[in-house]
Amino acid sequence: MNILFVVSELAPYSKTGGLADVAAALPKALAATGLTVRTVTPRYGFMTAGDYVGELRVPFGFQVQTAYVFREVRQGVETFFIDAPAYFHRGRKLYGEPDDAARFAFFSRAAIELARWFAAPPDVIHGHDWMAGLIPVYLRTVLRGDPFFARTATITTIHNLAFHGYFDLNDLTYFGLPTDLRSGPDGLEFDGVGSMLKGAILASDALTTVSERYAQEIQMPEYGFRMDGLLRMRRHDLVGILNGVDYNEWNPATDPHLAAHYTPADLSGKQICKADLLKRFGMPVELDRPAIVIVSRLSDQKGLDLVRAVAWRILHAGAYFLLLGTGDPRYEVFFQHLRDTAPRRIAVYFGLNEPLAHQMEAGGDIFLMPSAYEPCGLNQIYSLKYGTVPIVRATGGLDDTIQDFDRVTGTGNGLKFRAYNANRFMEKIYEGLLLYRQPDVWRVLQRNGMQADFSWARSAWKYRAVYERVCLG
Ligand code: ADP
Ligand code: GLC
Asked: Which domains does the chain have, with CATH numbers?
């Protein structure tokens, strides 16, 4: 079987979040199951990836537009980068432009045309989120009679239901799509505008999302972003498959970003990492003081209003608090203010910083992730591997990956609370700080996490099973 994997960000080249990590790791794991996998991604203006291989003609915007294709082969995966300066050269930005809809409609259309370069048509085109959402729509409509794609099935993975890829329905013809998609049961209309994600949900042969729990949650009004009805309708074609992590990138025994390495058997290097982290932020090094860390996009999704509500209590409880993140200015202003009141105990870094993300995971004692919703979440899984105890809210992938610690039986790999409530959250933080004071118990908790295996192999086989199913269907 050969798979075309279409994704709008790819680590280490372009990244706004976990999607880029998944895009880098999953194709490798799929290739290891014996599939032929080709990845397609934009070549944003700041990238230099790949070798030039040719021009691609893309019917789009009432004409045939040209894109330039670059190629790279790494670890069994052939990656194609689509360079279209008019759409993808926007400084450091990946998304958030007024013409995002046209940019990623073009990307989706270009990925389809690229598929024609290969001798055999793809058995499956596997797109991710709204940015590839129109692919199944094109194949179901204007390309329906195209013999090349007659046997090609489509899958969309939903990484985050909050983002739709809204567009003006008048642009359907500009995108090369029929105007009857405006309305009706197969229509792309959502709240009076077009939604690419809705198109993907309706037109894909199968849908997956990134944890079993989230697959259930999005069928309920509370987490469904008003798509729950549609998703219930498609529930027989919707599968939750937990993300894995790439332990070649995230392993404290080998991580090149760290001041020292460590393993579950010998955690002494973690103290060196903690000292190194505190020094980087110019803070006094008091190794007995617990370090609470956060690495996160600063958005409401991540439960930062709960963090804001408990921040002073964390400070009074005597812990260090370190935050790496970027996003909503409201949060940046608050955390900067907090830092300014207690610079010896609180540190913040606003921006994207990959090495620092690794150093925070290694140097922290406790990792906070009280998300309002979390399709999967990767940082709590990285935290487990780094012996940094995650305190999470029981939602989505956080619920699937973290088990609340039971000190009687010594089972569990983190601390977990349920209600979206600052007091419940703070109770868990207090519990964490108490456990931290009992080194023998703490070691058990750390090791439970460090020894867990969340590598991609198992999940890759589950994706393979979905591919097989849609190809037979
Ligand atoms: P999401 O994709 O919703 O942001 P995930 O937990 O799946 O959440 O993935 C987040 C990824 O982005 C992780 O690899 C994390 O280390 C990384 N990350 C988030 N914020 C930053 C930052 N400020 N600097 C570097 N990496 C970051
Ligand atoms: C999204 C989700 C996150 C998930 C990531 C990768 O960004 O917010 O929970 O881990 O996608 O699937």
From this structure: 2-244+456-472 (3.40.50.2000), 268-450 (3.40.50.2000)
